[in-house]
């Protein structure tokens, strides 16, 4: 895992010195941006290879096609990345024209699959990790270019990032060291964004301090219940990793395995998972958890919190804070819950790895691309200092200006009469793409726009009693191994999901937990664990250049 580098509190304090007058400023150039630059972009401008930007012997710029989803709220105001101001500036600087092709929103996977049934693929394709078997299987199938020998020459800035960041190299190559995709790299982690949230007025009314331990929460839940409110809304599937982490296990719908000291484990086989279920069953039986938790969607959860029907839940702190500001209530957050104060936790799952996993940020060059050098030149640009600044901030004089030696967003970004700041981020900057990704607390306009939003994101980020040692790196298995893993885990996961809800609600007594484990064993979980273990061992043994 990365050596956790989070924007420090001193930097946060500087950021919170934001002034009004319709602009927000970042103090990150003195710290996190400079760190990001040294992770592969320091001292580099765009790598100019003019020949790559020309169409054969013509003096005309080459035109490339680029298939990538565009699902942001900005779709209400622009047709897609063809209207993106930062991309337009990059094309001008590089002498390469890009024709973006976007699938219909909500149909990304279907239209991605259809690409491979056509006569000709677009030159550049995002979403490549969604190819059956992953992007490296696409390379083995011959539909994605193997870039291993080309990257050092034609994408030197990307190659520098790869070879100077050991974890990023492991995540971006297969077990044989092949390079097939350009991936988003975030060298400096952001503070976690998801925590327990409360209305400040409710805590005051209950005469409760911000809770820190299980005992604190249970005392608070009793007071909330006495008011006729439901104290807590559990995730609809019954998995809350921040509570599982109290017992050193980790399991949810997206992550079925974790590790301890290099050994792959599945949480429902562990005593810690029984301890978790025991706690949640106690809370459910005590009336602390909504009886309807398994049928409530995210948007409904927000409404229940906003209208005082539930006392607390786990949610994105900034989004909840901003929603509260609009509706007239103040939101506060809590530190990670613990059994006892000072407990060392090991479950942290946010920004653990330098490669971010947005599907738009795994980008390959197709077998049908006739100007691979130009495609690589364009994709390399996001790893240069010049390109990373452009993609993360936008165009100087258009949506930001210098204020002394700091970049400051202007009203085009913060108070645009046509659309909100969130939409502006997708129109004037490049949000999800292959690039060096600067921290949100440095250059995310929607965050910097509000002192309170930034403060709640930074709150509790100095917690030094949590690490990510339970987390598995995001390695890929070979196609046949992945297929076999899926054959085993699809019915296993279904069974675990069903039994987890039964244990929580009391429909199945926890006395039957050993039978539950035995059934999982009988379904082939040991073979699945061995597949994951072999994958982890190969990943960790990979030679880093």
From TrEMBL:
Residues 28-60 are annotated as: Disordered. This is Putative aldouronate transport system substrate-binding protein. It comes from the Bacteria. InterPro entries: Bact_solute-bd_prot1, SBP. PANTHER family: ABC TRANSPORTER SOLUTE BINDING PROTEIN-SUGAR TRANSPORT (PTHR43649:SF17), ARABINOSE-BINDING PROTEIN-RELATED (PTHR43649). The keyword Signal applies. Residues 1-26 form the signal peptide. Keywords: Signal. Pfam families: SBP_bac_1. The keyword Cytoplasm does not apply.
């Amino acid at each position: 895992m990365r050596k956790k580098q989070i924007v420090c509190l001193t930097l946060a304090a500087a950021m919170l010195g934001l002034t009004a007058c319709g602009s927000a400023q970042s103090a990150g150039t003195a710290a996190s941006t400079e760190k990001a630059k040294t992770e592969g972009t320091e001292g580099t401008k765009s790598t100019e290879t003019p020949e790559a930007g020309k169409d054969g012997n013509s003096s005309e710029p080459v035109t490339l096609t680029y298939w990538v989803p565009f699902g942001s709220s900005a779709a209400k105001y622009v047709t897609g990345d063809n209207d993106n101001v930062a991309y337009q500036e990059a094309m001008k600087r590089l002498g390469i024209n890009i024709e973006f092709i976007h699938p219909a929103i909500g149909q990304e996977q279907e239209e991605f699959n259809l690409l491979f049934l056509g006569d000709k693929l677009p030159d550049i394709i995002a979403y490549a990790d969604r190819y059956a078997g992953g992007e490296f299987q696409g390379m083995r199938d011959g539909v994605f270019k193997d870039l291993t020998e080309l990257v050092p020459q034609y994408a030197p800035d990307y190659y520098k990032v790869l070879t100077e960041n050991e974890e990023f190299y492991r995540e971006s190559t297969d077990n044989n060291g092949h390079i097939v995709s350009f991936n988003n790299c975030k060298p400096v982690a952001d503070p976690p964004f998801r925590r327990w949230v409360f209305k400040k007025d409710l805590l005051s009314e209950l005469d409760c301090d911000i809770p820190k331990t299980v005992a604190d929460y249970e005392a608070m839940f009793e007071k909330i219940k006495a008011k006729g409110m439901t104290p807590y809304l559990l995730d609809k599937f019954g998995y809350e990793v921040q509570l599982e982490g109290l017992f050193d296990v980790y399991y949810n719908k997206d992550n079925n395995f974790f590790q301890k000291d290099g050994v792959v484990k599945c949480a429902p086989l562990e005593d810690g998972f029984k301890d978790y279920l025991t706690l949640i069953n106690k809370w459910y039986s005590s009336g602390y958890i909504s009886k309807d938790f398994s049928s409530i969607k995210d948007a409904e959860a927000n409404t229940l919190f906003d209208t005082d029907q539930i006392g607390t839940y786990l949610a994105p702190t900034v989004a909840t804070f901003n929603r509260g500001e609009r509706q007239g209530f103040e939101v506060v957050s809590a530190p990670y819950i613990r059994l006892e104060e000072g407990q060392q936790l090991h479950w942290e799952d946010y920004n653990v790895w330098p490669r971010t996993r947005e599907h738009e940020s795994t980008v390959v060059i197709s077998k049908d691309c006739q100007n691979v050098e130009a495609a690589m030149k364009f994709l390399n640009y996001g790893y240069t200092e010049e390109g990373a600044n452009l993609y993360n901030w936008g165009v100087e004089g258009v949506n930001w200006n210098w204020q002394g030696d700091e970049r400051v967003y202007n009203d085009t970004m913060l108070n645009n009469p046509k659309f909100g700041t969130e939409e502006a981020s997708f129109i004037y900057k490049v949000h999800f793409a292959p690039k060096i990704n600067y921290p949100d607390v440095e250059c995310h306009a929607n965050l910097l726009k509000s002192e309170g939003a930034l403060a709640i994101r930074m709150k509790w980020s100095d917690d030094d009693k949590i690490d990510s040692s339970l987390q598995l790196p995001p390695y890929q298995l070979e196609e046949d191994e992945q297929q076999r893993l899926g054959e085993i885990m699809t019915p296993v996961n279904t069974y675990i999901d069903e039994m987890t809800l039964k244990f929580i609600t009391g429909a199945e007594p926890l006395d039957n937990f050993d039978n539950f484990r035995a059934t999982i064993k009988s379904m082939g979980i040991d073979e699945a664990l061995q597949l994951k273990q072999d994958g982890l061992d190969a990943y960790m043994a990979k030679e880093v250049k």
